[in-house]
Amino acid sequence: MKRVFAVTVIVFVLLMDVNLARGSHDYGDALMKAILFFEGQRSGFLPQDQRMTWRANSGLGDGWTYKADLVGGYYDAGDNVKFGFPMAFTTTMLAWSIVEFGNMMPPNELRNAMVALRWATDYLLKTVSEPNRIFVQVGDPISDHNCWERPEDMDTARTVYAVDAPEPASDVAGETTAALAASSLVFWATDPGYAETLLRNAYITFQYADKYRGAYSDNANVKYGACPYYCDFDGGYLDELLWGAAWLRRATKDDNYLNYLQTNGKTLSADDKIYEFGWENKHAGLNVLVSKEVFEGNVDSLESYKASADSFMCTLIPETPSSSVEYSPGGLLYKPGGSNLQHATSISFLELVYANYLDHTSQSLTCGNVVVSAQTLRQHAKRQLDYILGDNPMGLSYMVGYSNYYPQRIHHRGSSSPSIKDHPQFISCQEGSIYFNSTGPNPNVLVGAIVGGPGKDDVYVDDRSDPGRSEPTTYINAPFVGVLAYFAASPN
Fold first, then answer.
1. Domain 10-15+25-163+207-213+264-489 belongs to what architecture?
2. I want to staple 151 with a disulfide (CB 3.0 to 4.6 A). Which of 58, 112, 121, 404 is the partner?
């Protein structure tokens, strides 16, 4: 995804007894850090209470070419582009984490999580503020990826990518619908006016998504900005439409969205896609979310969603006859492609949500001849959590700043370059290469960042030029907030 620079490869050799660290995790500390990470990804005017103090204002002119205010939001990973598709998914998952597990968070961390969420929703509202137009990206990825430049200095093109009716953007618009609707549930109690604004915009955005059907990356004016980074590789957008409708149903209780799920869900084929969940593919998360209606006895006609959710859970448990997910020798859930920990965090989150649904209705799963209880799902999720925090063959925490052993050379421009607070002089595009090529640790610790993680063999190389393993992303962290909130309150 990113331009590759020459770099000396440094492999972690950790001289410690891994077993001594097992079972001794401070989930509350990890939760605090997982939320803090989002402050390091902020774009725009930073507030006075900014805790990640090595960061400063950036992207203050975003949107000017359209005479629009697109200041704010998050950089998705280690670059300086604001990709709308993964940012919206990040927002949905951060909101869902709070909806399901916010009552288990300490009050101060619940507040911090809501602040992180609002930083995203304030920006998403800007992206849908003009009639029949959706802003889907800010920043030219080619020029950005050819530079190693901290966000405070970036002088690359801040190209604005917009989709105007009748051009389609069902995937981004559907995910943005989900993000706004899910977030409205978070803010109803503390700021009902803001929650109403979120819900009203979710409804309008869904109308655009459904009326002008198609993938946003099919648009010629967007394709070469979104691809090959966050375009719709599978060519599908119906999952985002159903995902948006499901969250509108959850937020409004409107039966029209149930009818939409019933009618349109029939066109989803029962193929391998139902076993995926991430920024591009919503199938497994959609099935888990909609299954709540069936668990509560509201709508039997949505049973097919629950059946798919059951099937998905059965594939995760190695002891079941339908087990189909690969695991590394050390026990990490593994799916081909880069940034593997995005799968471990998002799927663990779904397991915990589904376990709650099972518990609340005193049910369990039957996977062939194996009965899978809610506790089984929770223990499986906990093994993934503990692996990420250090219970792995390398004894390495894949969360930066957690424990004494974590990645030091993450693929992140701001973290690897000197802070503008310490080095106020401008660092140009090519001048930044020296920091990329440095064999030293990053000078700024991006606390709470979860990197892409090890390969199928459990080996992690601390290599800044390997973004598939060393780059953190917001959509790895967002579902992990919910996972950590659960186990911080219920560690066993």
1. Alpha/alpha barrel (1.50)
2. 58
